[in-house]
Structures are given as C-alpha cells and as structure tokens.
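Catalogue entry: protein
Contents: sequence, fold tokens
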Amino acid sequence: MIDIIVPIKQVPDMDRVKFDTEAGRIDRSSASGEINPFDLNALETAVQLREKLGGTVTTISMGPPQAESSIRDSLARGADFGILLVGKEFAGADTWATSYALAAAIRKLGRWDLIICGEKTVDGDTGQVGPEMAEWLDIPHVAYVSEVREASDSGITVVCEMEADRYGIESPLPTLLTVTKDINAPRLPSFADKMRARKAEIQQWGAADLAEFADPANLGLKGSPTRLNKVIIPSEEGRKGVVFRGNPDDAARRVAEALQAAGTLGSVK
C-alpha cells in the first residue's frame, strides 16, 4: 500500500491566453483553464503505482474557486481524493510562497508516502515548486524522472535524465519526484469517470485551515520574495521567401547580395 500526493495547477490554454504586459501578468480570464500538461504525467504515474501497489492518490491544488474543475478532472483520471487551497490569502504567490502553502497542506493531510509533481508548468516554466516543497518537508527528491523501474511501500528506483546522461537513482520513502513528459502517455477519462467526478466531494481549505502548519506572513503576495517586473512577448515571424527571376548569373548575384545583407556572407565582389 502506498499513499501518493500529486500537486496540480490549473493553467490557461496557452494557445489562446492573452498577456497583460503593463501589469506584468497573464490574463487568466482570457482563456479556459485546464490541468497543467506536465501534471497529467505526474498523475498518470501515481495512478499506475496505485494500481500496482494499492493505496490512494490525492491531488492538491492552489487557486481560485474555478480551479475546482481541474480537481474534478483529476478525479475522473484516477485520483481518489482532491483538495483545493482557496482564498485571497493565497493570491499572488511566487514559487517560494506556493511551495510553502502546498507543503503546509501536505503536513495537514498527514498520511503520505510519495509526492509526484510535473517537471514544470507551461505558464511559469521554472521547475522550482516541486524541489522547494521537498525542502520545506525535509525529504529527498529526484528531478527529471523519465522512468520508474521498481517501487514498493518502502522505496522507489527511477531513471532521471539530465542533458545527455541517464541516471538510475534509488530513494527510500517518503520522497518527492518531478517527472518529465516522456514518462508516460496520460489516460483519457471515460464518460462514466467524468460523471462520477462531478458528484465527488472536493475539500476546500483556506489559510485558517493551515494555521497550525503555516505562518500567514509567508502566504500569497505578501509572503513572496520575488516580483515580476516585465512581460515580453516574443514576436512570431514566419519564414519569408523571395523568388529571383531572370538571368541565372544576375539571380545568383542578387541571392549573394541578399545573404550579405542578412549577415550570412562577407562582401560580394
């Protein structure tokens, strides 16, 4: 038996979301929310381990009330329980304050053996929250896990990939993993699973519920030591084609001149 926690985040559809460059933030109201894709890989890993070893899978998220839809999606995909941290006290949190709040919630939950996180989020791309949670909880962690080799109720052996190298790492439980998208292909929920998840009870915890485990001064915006000063959206320019017609020798010279103007060639004689 193994009790697993999977922190998940509701992120906007990044293909449709708009950015408020003046305020330096994502306009989350401009696109629908969904579970962060990397977190789906973490959830699938947890469900597969639960199916093999028995136990439970609990998802935890921090966000606005509408993030409950992502918790329900996680239940439809195989999680047993879901918890949402919600309240204005959590708003504006950076990775430090986010990991602190999630770690406090895990301490409150009490019963767990393994935490599995996605490698990163598509709206932040820092990859910091998972390892920071492990530090708050004072447990070992393994990042960039692409394969689970063996697992039991006392330990786990995984393969992690860093640049061109692969490492086999064995860790006792409790521990925390961050997994890459290469570890599996997340399952799709059936209609019956979705209907079951719609009726499930979702626990909602506010800052007061974490009072025994978290200092309010470390939550949300006021507990965040970092600030985002500016958002720059890179331009998306496609390839540009130019057709040179006429005399082959003249066309060749014009091609060379164009390459020179682009800085690809030296002077054309």
